[in-house]
Each structure stands twice: as C-alpha cells, then as structure tokens.
Amino acid sequence: MPVAAQPCDIGFVGAGVMGKNLIMNLVDNGFRVIAFDLDQSKLEALQAQDDAERGDSPPRVLTCNSYTDLLASLSAPHLIVVSVPAGSPVDDVCHKLVDAGLQADDIVVDTGNSLWTDTQRRETEYEGQFILFSTAVSGGEVGARFGPSLMPSGDPYAWTRIKPMWEAIAAKVDPDTGKPIERKAPGEVVAKGEPCAAYIGPSGSGHYVKMVHNGIEYADMQLICEAYQVMRDALAMSASEIAAVFRRWNEGLLNSYLIEISAEVLDTVDAETGAPLVEMILDKAGQKGTGLWTAVSSLELGCPAPTIAEAVYARSISTLKDQRVKAASLLAGPDFDKPSAEQRDSLIDQLHDALYCAKICAYAQGFDLMRTAAKEQGWTLNYGEIAKIWRAGCIIRAVFLQSIADAYERNEELENLLLDQYFAEQISSNQRNWRKAVANASLWGVPVAALSSALSYYDAYRTAVLPANLLQGQRDYFGAHAFERVDKPRGKKYHVEWSDPARPMTRLK
Ligand code: 6PG
C-alpha cells in the first residue's frame, strides 16, 4: 500500500546514523524520501528529527513498515538506497527487496563501507533481478547531514538517475580557492560550488577508492599521533600546549580536518576528573577493517604502501596494552638525554616538516595503489577528480588535496606523486628536518613507525640501485630462482651453480 499520496523520489532501507543523516540532507534539498527500517525506534527518531527541524512546514520524511510499502511508495523504476552495515546485512536486504517485487530495471544503491570485491560479486549475482549500484560515503555523521564526499560506481544508467540527488547533497568546494563551502545548519542548502561527488567507474571501483581513502586516513591519523607522542614524551609538552601547536600548523601547509579535530580533542577537559580528556582515554585503538583491506590489497598487488600498513600495525600494537605495561618495566630504552626546553621550538619545526613530508608519501602510496589496481581491473580512474572530491566532506579533507589535483592536471599519466615537480621540491626543501625528527625520535626511544616508514619509502623510491641484487643472489643460491643481469636484456634469466668452484652460469630459456 503506498504510504505517500504521490510517489517519492527515493527510498531508504536503514535509518541508522548514516541513513538518517543522508535522508535529512536529501529532504533539505527538496527530495521526497520514504524510509524503512526493521527497527521501529530508528524510524521514530528520524521522524522526531524532522519534527524538530521543519518548524511549521508539513512533515518532509515519510516512513513505512515493510519492503512492499516502500516499493509501492516509489515510481518505477524504483530507486532505493541501502544504508546498513557492510557484509551480509547488505545481501539480506537485497534478497528481501527481490522478494518484495524488485524488477530488473530497479536500482539498489549500497552506501556502506562494503569490501569492493563484494560489490563486484553482488553486481554479477543480482544481474537480471535489479541493478546493483554503489556509492561509498565519507564524512561520518556530520558529513552525511551537511555534505559528504561521495564515490559512486557501477552501472552508468543508474548514475544518471541518482546524480542530481548526490550532487545536491554532496559537500561543495569553492572552485576559486579549492576550499570547502561551509554548511552547518539544518534547512541550509549550498547551490553553488563544485560538488564532491563524481562517478568513479565500473562496479567495485568506488568502494576500492573509498577503501584507499580510509587507508590514507589511517596513515594520516597515525602520523599526527606520532607527532603528538614525540611532543608529549620527548618534549614534555602538555595536551593544551600540543593543541596550540596543532592549531598553528592548521594555519599552513598541514591545514586539514584531522589536524583541526586533533587540536580540539587535545583541548577538551574531562568533566569527571578535570584532567585533559585525551589522557583519560585508554590507548587501545579500534578498527573496522578498511585500513587492513588497503594494506592487504597493497601486498597482493605488490604495490608498496608501507606507511598505511604501519598505521594498521600501530593500531594492532596499541591493543597489546597489558603486554606493553609489563614490557615497560622490563625492556630498557636508550639513555640519550631528552631535549632541553630551549630546543623545543626548533624540534617542533622539525616535526612539522616530518609530518608534511610523510603525509606526501602516504598519499603517494594511496594514489599509486589506486593506479595499480585500476591497471589490473581495467578501470580508467580520474585521479585529479578523485583528489577534488576529497577536498571537502570527507575525513581526509585538506587544502593539500588541491595540490594533488593540480599535479594530475599537469600530468594525467603521473606514475607517482613523488615524481611531480611540486611535490619533489616540497620534500627536497623539507627533508632535512624530516630526517632529524625521525633520527631524534629513535635516539629518544619514541616509536615513529609511520614517519620513519615514509622516509624509508622515499629513500627506497629514489635509490637507483637497491640491495635486491644480493637478495636475488641469495634466492638463486638456495633455490635456483634465477636472476636478470644488468648487462643483458631484461627478461633473460640466469642461474649460477654456486656450489661448483668454477661457478658456471647458465642462461635459462
Ligand atoms: C569516513 C570514515 C568512516 C569510518 C571508518 C573508520 O570516511 O567517513 O572513514 O568510513 O569512520 O570506517 O573506521 P575505523 O573504525 O576502521 O577507524
């Protein structure tokens, strides 16, 4: 039975945190939405939010109690967004929608953090039953409400259906400055600016790009945390002093949402104890899996992303709290003196430059990963556009993304961000401090796995001759794995009889 007197523009399954805020964003932008959730209290909360925000105007959000009513309230071909936790809940909803009468030309849009291979599998599995489209969403609760970054992918026809809605609700960027256009109040809409929503490519590509976004997010967060730890443990700075440093950094090259919120977290006082709240939070990091997936993908593709992987490991080692507490009294650290108060300012400057250079490397790794995956999957990704839709709305939003977009505008075929002249110069002029920061942290015994892995990545990437020649020798010695020679054409393989004193060499076919 239709719940709406006239058909709605779009239906939602799932009115949890993300679903509810996307719905409110859509209604602010004038779209008619009908929502269904198995949990009635979520629908009540959605309606309560609409009641609180709409003032004297009539209710803008409609809700219903079954999949059948949801379909009946939409005109065909139906357009339905699924906002449920990634994994089997997405398939459960798809099956229920099919049972309720979904048709082959209906569109189902998965907006969760789905594993990209699940999205590919689903597109094939549901072919003929309905069109599975996806849109990866970044920006958390506030982003969903006032402007997320959206990474849609899949069937191009489905994109034409949902494009006007996604472009309306997405975060917007001022094209002249590359900076986000703020939108913070319910009812507000931003009609101007470049929307942070762009079609990414075939099925799976949008979720792959979002996965890499999250991998970069892990690295970015870990790098900031390492700078915090050096200031806290080596420079003996208080949480509010560190917050002040982050706020200053946020005025310059490091300007980003993550630096901004880090300063706010550090400046918050615990109401119960009066201590900085950050010091009352247990140092055990959680993770939902997207950073891990990024690291696994980099290993599978043989595309180095060590700073992202280190960020995942940093979360893992943080969970070993009880062992670390035991080890803290057992395992000796270095006996180098901690720096004096007079040295503080210059050491903070070193940390700033280290964070900036390492951040460039983390992004270089993420973009290289997307490039490598695209090659393998046969996707044509527009890296400049991806950087642009990350300038606002998403968790890694930063002015820095404009520089990445510019780099790809200079050269669409750029193999690695480090090869772009601007970034090469940025690292070249800041690397001295980066090296000093990493060296000092190691002398003081403060772990900086992400900052130093980025430095090793940079050094390895700029090294024409790595020690892999010896490694190939070792492999050939014990396993006859063969090697190429520097003085012979690539692809020709050689093997040496290492145990024979004459060391005869054979060329393998
Ligand atoms: C985003 C976030 C969002 C979520 C991550 C973090 O872009 O909005 O990345 O997707 O916060 O899943 O997850 P972890 O729990 O793994 O840190």
What's the short story on this structure?
The chain has 509 residues and is of the alpha/beta class.
Structure description:
With 509 residues, this protein is of the alpha/beta class. The chain folds into three domains: 10-203, 3-Layer(aba) Sandwich (Rossmann fold); 207-461, N-(1-d-carboxylethyl)-l-norvaline Dehydrogenase, domain 2, CATH 1.10.1040.10; 468-508, 6-Phosphogluconate Dehydrogenase, domain 3 (Single alpha-helices involved in coiled-coils or other helix-helix interfaces). It has 20 helices and eleven strands. It has helices at residues 17-28, 40-54, 67-72, 88-99, 116-125, 140-146, 156-169, 205-234, 239-249, 257-267, 277-280, 290-301, 306-318, 321-330, 344-377, 383-389, 400-410, 421-444, 449-461, 468-479; strands at residues 10-13, 33-36, 61-64, 79-82, 107-110, 131-138, 149-153, 172-173, 194-195, 493-496, 505-508. The strands form three sheets. Strands 3-2-1-4-5-6-7 form a seven-stranded mixed sheet, sandwiched between helices. Strands 8-9 form a two-stranded antiparallel ribbon. Strands 10-11 form a two-stranded antiparallel ribbon. Helix 12 crosses helix 13 (306-318) and helix 16 packs antiparallel against helix 17. The longest helix is centred in the last third of the chain and has 34 residues, at 344-377. 6-phosphogluconic acid (6PG) binds next to helix 8 and helix 12.
